[in-house]
Design brief:
Layout (H helix, E strand, L loop, with lengths): L3 H45 L7 H19 L3 H4 L2 H16 L18
Helix pairs in contact: 1-4
Length: 117
């Protein structure tokens, strides 16, 4: 006989862990995208100045390989074979990455410099 409380515990625990993972991935991906953007901008500037030559076909092959790896990762059975914990963890990670906010108050209310009265 299945234990309903166990399924609820697995579901809530998986969603919570996934939410935390999603929020962490959101922060880390922002930092990584800034770093990659700065790196690519520096490559373009150096290429326009004639310092380096960029092999664009090789860059395109690298991006196609990365996209192919991500597509194959989504086709695997890893998520569905983990049961209630894995499925709710993935849903929590998606929710944490898309909607998770560290500060629920809008950022305009935070002021770094305050006038002393």
């Amino acid at each position: 006989m299945a234990d309903p409380l166990g399924f609820v515990t697995l579901g809530v625990g998986g969603f919570t862990v996934g939410y935390l993972i999603g929020m962490a991935l959101r922060v880390v991906s922002k930092i990584a995208l800034y770093a990659v953007g700065l790196y690519l901008a520096s490559l373009v500037v150096l290429a326009s100045m004639g310092v380096i030559i960029i092999n664009w076909s090789s860059m395109e092959a690298l991006i196609y390989g990365l996209v192919d790896f991500l597509v194959n990762l989504t086709k695997s059975d890893v998520v569905t074979s983990t049961g209630a914990f894995g499925v709710t963890m993935v849903l929590g990670a998606i929710y944490g990455a898309l909607r998770g906010d560290v500060h629920p108050v809008p950022a305009q209310n935070y002021k770094f410099f305050r006038r002393l009265r």
